Amino acid sequence: MSNHKIGIRRVNVEKILLAAEKIFAEKGYGSTAMADIAEEVQLPRSNLHYYFTTKSELYSAVLFDLLELWKQDALSFETFDDPRVVLSSYIRAKMQRARTRPYGSKVWANEIIHGAPTLGEALDESLYDWAKMKEAKIRQWVEDKRILPVEPSSLLYMIWASTQHYADFDHQVKILNDHQPLSDMQFEKAIQTVTGVILRGIGLQP
Fold first, then answer.
1. What is the CA radius of gyration of the chain?
2. Which residues contact 33 (CB under 8 A, 6 or more apart)?
3. 121-136: per-residue pLDDT in tens?
4. What is the pTM of this model?
5. Which of 45, 82, 140, 164 has a C-alpha 20 to 30 A away from that of 148?
């Protein structure tokens, strides 16, 4: 396959995944048809099936694509050592992802709420070791007295809950903001607030 064709394929797959995120989030897996996604991405249904044979295959691709994006958002754990820099960078990345990919977060939440019926054991393989590596770094910070004593998994859960709230409950956020989406300035203040509360809770200054 030529580089040109590979490029076209990559672009089309990305468009399909984004469209599928939106439809799965709005309708749920059971109520979504491949035709709905084809209409959203403006491709003939036959073209959609060329890339993804079944709805189940496409749904799995959406979920694993999201997981890879969230792993990218956590690269600060590998790039830096300073807990303030690592966590500030991670929270900002998670908040920005919640704003730019809210449908994906909702699809993920729905899958997990229902016991990960699609991901199944693959979730253990993809998520467990990755999360444990992050917990180990946090635990080392505690042992080195660089942050206050904290249960590493609970800190991660708090970050995930605080940041993904802006995606999973964006309608509620909009209602409480006088029925308007958060402006860029408001969202920046939200990032600073979440970051400040979490960092101060473990003995760090933002």
1. 19
2. 55
3. 878 888 888 999 999 9
4. 0.91
5. 164
